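Extended Data, panel c. Modelled sequence:
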Amino acid sequence: MGRDKILYGGIGGFLLFAVGISVGVLIGWYSGPDRVTSDIEAQWAEENSGIAARLSKLIDNGEIDKNLQELTKDPHVAGRPRQFELAEWVKEQFESYGFDNAEINTYNVLLSYPSEVEGEENVVQLLEPNAAASDGYDVVYESQTEEPPLDDTAEGKYVLPPFNAYSANGTVQGEIVYANYARVEDFFYLERNLSINVTGKIVIARYGKIYRGDKGKFAAQFGAKGLILFSDPADYTVEGESVYPNGLYLPPTGTQRGTCLDGSGDPLTPGYPSVASAYRYPYKPEEAYKELGLPTIPIHPIPSNDAKKFLELMAGDEVLDSWAGGIDGITYKYGPGFASPNEDKEVRMRISTSNKRVDAWNVIGMIRGSVEPDRYVLIGNHRDAWAFGAIDPSTGTATMLEVARAFGALVKDGWRPRRSIMFGSWGAEEYGLIGSTEWVEELSKNLDNRAVAYLNLDISISGSFVPEFAATPNLYNVIWEATKAVPDPNVQDFESNEGVATLYDRWSLREHEKLRDDHPFIGDLGAGSDYVPFLQKVGVSAMDYTFVHDKESVPIGPYPMYHSAYETYNLVKKFYDPDFVYHQASGRLYAEMLRNLADSKILPLDCTDYADRIEDFFNNLRDGENGQLMIREGITFDLMEASIKRLQTAAKTFEDYIEEDLDLRNILSVRAVNDQLMNFERSFIDPLGLPGRPTTRHVVFAPSSRNTYSSDKFAGIVDTMFDIENNEDDNKWEYVKAQLGAVTFALDSAAHSLDLSHLRK
């Protein structure tokens, strides 16, 4: 272990020294004016109509299978030796594909690990008083410290014990209270409806509904001194269906790992990249640092078979039906504490997780554009996992690599896209989007001027029912058109095919919620993956996707084995996609979206869809509970509504100009229009950020402050309106008015960004 630390520390130090030079080469070489082609014929040329079909044919399901086998051979937690080995392997793949450049970028960041010293394992204990014991208690039950292997995948492989990253270190002891999903509304219910105060108590809550880091934050805000999380069978199994290894559902020994960081990026360098010259906040492991987004209380995950040992003893009233889980043989109760004859028993959490600075490695590959090499279309996937990571993220990594191989094959054959394509394999995403955030922070000025769009591919498949998308609205049409070009991976899913031939047909048939012109629904971006820094820090249009299970019939999210040691290659091969045809469809989808964005003469970014969707969001805000409260307070939406109408008019005028008046042989006009389309998203970035969240800057889409995974629209208004009737701040309505003004200004800025006076004769 010591030698490994020295070896990898040395490599990391060298790479950190070199990263400025290498990134400069990557960005600078392909962006100087002498690199932009002066070949007028090339600038006039339309995209090659045959490339899409060639790309689709090149995507090989067998190659994706091979990639997944390599990626999941061993656990690959961020900052560990296997992560560096995989970074080198991905770089070698990019080079073998014929990329113009491939490099590893290193950032020295604060990560978190459980103690691996015998006797210091993270545990939750059930205690019984015993005056003769050294500390006055006997341990009558102790939670498991590892997930026992259930198939040959993990035999002989070392998997880090289950833990919640960045948990506060220490020992806490006392009564427990059951808090359902540990949401704000759950704590409000305990406090306001049941008069149960969790101050000084240990909270036990089930995973699900919201981001685990928010659970820890809320537990601490309401006064708890510790938080135990468990995966309840009601949320991760289906009654009557088999659990792993005989099925795809979570066994009672399965434990979900995950970060509890409140925020994204390296906690020690908020807003700035973790390069050698960066100022790092002074950090002492024995102190809690709420201001850095680090949890202030111990947090630990346990499996349902351990949770049962505590929940079955609890005192108090029986919970609401909506609070009751699915552990057999128990009645869920609120607590606090245990019922007779166990009322003298207590719970102890002994947590030895510690934080330390280590290296995280990104791998960046580039295919140079032939006409506009200084315009970047980006695709990314994170490479790190909590264990074997066969679904998250390796289905995405395996698929992205095959997309890269297909594009490389075309480049070797003499074709090049109009714009440059950049592939990012991010490190330390699982800890809080760290690798991608540091890279975006370091290159924010270049990306602000040159990035067209970012396509995120975290998880390629977590089911085989329907594709699921989230995106900024200007990418809706890119997605719809790409799905129409991808053959359905398994038409046998449908009786008499039901007219299903393409991925779009499947999606349209099975997605009951619709958008304009009866197109299938596309969701909104929260903060669940690496699109966040691109959208929130720079204003780069972005999308995310996963092929998912039928969530209406099986309301499990995101998938049963999420972040457990049982998320293995065998799981994917046996239960999800034996022939990798859904992976193949995902690869074809991303290849087509990349091709369209990188090779179309006019960027396929639709501002009218964006403006119309903003109107939908506005109507929901004004007519909803928050809007009606604002109106009763005398706050008018008239100016915001007028700004939206101006935006819709400007967007329609701009699109009409492209369709009817733009001279496609005037290379300066084409470039100007494309730059306006690219920069449209930047209009929604507020440099001051949202209230209390200075690095979250998008005024239309932002992660919810009560569930980081989900999206709030006009989040600045939503945040200042939260629980406002119980807010005693005399200036509370002034904060709301300030956010309404900021949003209205951004909407007008977006309309101004589409001004055509410089193009009109």
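The two ends are 70 Å apart (CA to CA). This feature is highlighted in the accompanying rendering.
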